Amino acid sequence: MIESKTLPTRYVTRPGEIRTSSGKTLRTDEMIINMGPQHPSTHGVLRLEIVVDGEIIVDVIPHIGYLHRCFEKHAEHMSNYQQVIPYADRMDYVAAMNMEHGYAVAVERMLKLEVPERVEYIRVIMAELQRIASHLIAVGTFGIDAGAFTPFLYAFHDREHILDLFEMTCGARLLYNYIWVGGLSHDLPEQFVDKCKEFCVYFKPRIKQFNDLLTYNEIFVKRCANVGVLPKDVAINYACSGPMLRASGVNWDLRRDDPYSIYNRFEWEPQVGKGEMGTVGDTWDRHIVRMREMEQSVKIIEQALEGIPAGNVQAAIPKKIRPEVGEIYARTETPRGELGYYVMSDGSASPFRVKARSPAFVNLSVLPEISRGGMLADLVLIAGSVDIVLGEVDR
Amino acid sequence: MSAVKGYFHNIWLALSTVAIGMKITFKHLFVPAVTVQYPDVKMKLPDRARNRLYVNIDDCIGCDQCAMACPVDCITIETVKSTPDQDLGTTSTGHKKRLHVSVFDIDIAKCCYCALCVYPCPTECIVMTDVYEFSEFDRKNLIYNYSIMTPHEIDAAREKLKKAEEEAAAKKAAAAAAKAAPAPSAQTLAAPMTGGAVGTPTKTEGSNAAQSPKPTTPAPDSSGQTGNS
Amino acid sequence: MDALDNLGVWGSVLVALVWSALPVVFILLYALVTLYMEMKVAAHMQDRLAYMRTGWHGTLQPFADILKLLQKEDTISQAADKKLFILAPYVVFIGTYAAFSAIPFSSIYIGSNIDLGAFFVVAVSSLVVVGILMGGWASNNKWSIFGAMRSAAQMVSYEIPTALAILIAVMITGSLNLQEVTKFQEGGIHNWLIFGGPLPLTQKLLLIPFTLVTFLILFIASLAEVNRTPFDLPEAESELVQGFNTEYSGMRFAMFYLAEYANMFLVSGVAVALFLGGWSSPFGSFLSGPVWGLFWFIGKGMVLVFLQIWIRWTLPRLRVDQLMYISWKVLTPFMFACIFGVGLILVL
């Protein structure tokens, strides 16, 4: 008999439960399984302690912190605001451009700094390219969780093109240090616009191929439909954001609803889950929302490429960043959801406090709620559909 | 009736989507592989690629900007000031070098390849190259020592600096003493006229020096202080 | 057969041993080839190269893999049930290998020409279930037990469509002896049972839809018998590490692996013998004969094995309850419908 500390005391016992004289409810017939910090699903070091009754899940307790690298503490000890950017990259390493963008937006708002048009256009292109790359990883690893190994490799093949574009611009493939406070570190090389246009033309049929192979495959649909349903009100109460929230039917996208940068100049639609293959808010909806968001990102990139003005990307980079005493919370939309930076300044050149509100951390908290009552095989899919990156969860 | 129809529809969907998926993978059997067989074939990196750091130590003026800019503190720089009579030359960009760079260590194991050290360098002597194959068996070999001064040279430079500072301090003390005691100096000026030995000025200067407090290296401050007080 | 009488007891025992050891030789060679084929086919479907460094384009890699497995440390956890743990891989292999004795490789080679061939194959290959359950239980590991339970449920459920599909072939041919069934289909591709068999034209045309469906169902059920994707939940790598295989290392793991590949060929061989004409040449009398027969049989078997590999690398995995649903609520009713239809056509 296992005394379950996580379950509340109930006054009515269910089958398999025993009520002790002290009033606690004891459950029988359970097994506690550890999906340990290392497991073959490619999600990083997350420990899931699963209380299971046969094949049905009774409770899931995530244990995090295995990848905590003290980002916020490091940020306090940097000698200036620009030095925090490499650390911000490394939080969510698969969506590094978005992390840098969020921080730059926060500090620029605090300084009331206007950046040149060209910088804004390039930032949007980079952020959307990074969104595609991140979603490719998400859907690829989701396929592996479901047992399909091939779509993952097709997704990574496409991702290579994006990483080549990034490498051409700033020299690094994964952790860029490209979007600085007030501008960018390099201007675009000459062949970037053509290569990016080529990529957009190449990528659209690949999305269709991926959908044919995985998304609309009946076996996959049957695995994902009606699994891990996240109702609208639960999603809002748990402060979920990003594709998780939109898949539950909430039409909320920070790029449109709390605009930053120049997103309001482009024509695109936030994608909302409609429950086409099952219930609204199941894992299939999250998957299809990510696939469709990739298409929308391509649309934004094409529009941005048409309209890039000329200019100097380093004109507005301040020599010394010394904001006034104060604080600011600025939020941006990363592939995982709402990333918020809460920056406090005490008037010196080094930040007093930088807190990162990590979307994956908040989204992960809803995992126990949506996996109770499901099967063990479903839990892997649900954890995959939340799309966590442990670097961001643990910071 | 719809349950039965749904049942058959399901089966039809399953078979057709499976067939579509299999067609895609079959077509990919004939697509040439995209693998680059690494040790035999190496891809060419773009111009801006950021890999191992390299420092052209001849161009380094020891300004410490790169060490201050590094977010992980992987650069250690120690310099020794040069004396005015030493000519360390100019860098290829035209900056005059005034410091001996005695220690310039980069711990490449700590480096995060952010290139924040490259931007502030006034002479562009620290660059990120495209070398990415630099594994070592011993971790100590990952600390790159770029300075070309031998310990002997460093000691010599320090000695020279010390001596120059001492001399400067002595001169300063002497000048301060000369200002503080004008009469002995009139005597010293008169002494050579009386036809004394040429060596006498030094004697009187030596006596003058004996009168004023003996300057030692920290003493310039104290003599200044005594002068002030 | 007359020559054997003159050899005496020891002579005939020796001959019997050699005769029955030939499939082992075949299985070992075939396993090496299939290991290589699986890796290369998987790689090219994913736009990448597989092994390129061991031997020309990696042809020596299967040898390297087997050598590696053989020289690994043999770990048995302390709490494991030693006897069952050691016995399990052998039981699985024996279950598969015993069924090989009834498969006709060629017109002159069949392990044992028993009149109950098809029945024997289905019955003896159920030993594999016993072996897997032994392996999972004896490992004393929660994940292994999960895998073993799922695997046992899966294999037992999918034997029903398999047996029913075999029943249809038996109904058309009238004999359980696999050699007889193959001889029945001699004479060219139009005589294969999948296209109705050598029957009068009206009967044949009416039979074709049923035999096509039956072959498809036999193929799907055989995928489940060998635990391949989409039915590989017992070995689901993303959840259970390796399922019932988790605690096995080295030689024992190699045994399981070999048994899995042998099983793949076994079910392909049965499907080929029953529906695709076995060792008979598709061109009738051209390119036929005992040695050619061997070539055709192995060739057709390899085509089906390639199909299994192709499906594995395309499809995602089914969940346990969906697996059961397919077996009991889709395959079995369709098989009953086919039996009814075929019976009706044969009688009329």
What key phrases describe this protein's structure?
heterotrimer; B: 229 residues; alpha+beta; Alpha-Beta Plaits; three-stranded antiparallel β-sheet; two-stranded antiparallel sheet; 6 helices; 41% helix; 11% strand; rod-shaped; disordered C terminus; C: 348 residues; mainly alpha; 13 helices; 68% helix; 0% strand; globular
Tell me about this structure.
The complex is a heterotrimer of chains A (395), B (229) and C (348). By secondary structure, chain A is α+β, with helices and mostly antiparallel strands. Chain A is 44% helix and 13% strand. Chain A has a three-stranded antiparallel sheet. In chain A, a hairpin with a 5-residue loop joins strand 1 and strand 2 (25-27). In chain A, helix 4 runs antiparallel to helix 14. Chain B is an alpha+beta fold and 229 residues long. Among the domains of chain B are: 53-151, Alpha-Beta Plaits, CATH 3.30.70; 155-210, no CATH class. Chain B has helices at 2-28, 65-69, 151-180, 182-190, 200-211, 219-228; strands at residues 53-55, 75-81, 99-107, 126-128, 143-145. In chain B, the strands form two sheets. In chain B, strands 2-3-5 form a three-stranded antiparallel sheet. A two-stranded antiparallel ribbon of chain B has the order 1-4. Chain B is rod-shaped, with a radius of gyration of 36 Å. Chain C has one domain. Chain C contains 13 helices and no strands. In chain C, helix 2 (8-45) runs parallel beside helix 12 (290-312), helix 4 runs antiparallel to helix 5 and helix 9 runs antiparallel to helix 13 (320-347). Chain C starts with a helix and ends with a helix. Chain B binds chain C through residues 11, 18, 21-22, 24-26, 28-29, 31, 33-35, 37, and chain C through 41, 43-49, 52, 310-311, 313-315, 330.
Q: Give the proportion of residues in helices of chain A.
A: 40-55%
Low-confidence stretches of chain A: none
What characteristic shape of chain C results from the CA principal axes?
globular
Order of strands across the widest beta sheet of chain A? 3-4-5
Q: Write down the overall mean pLDDT of chain C.
A: 85
Give the % helix of chain C. Answer: 55-70%
Largest sheet of chain A: 3 strands, antiparallel
Question: Low-confidence segments of chain C, ≥5 residues, pLDDT <50?
Answer: none
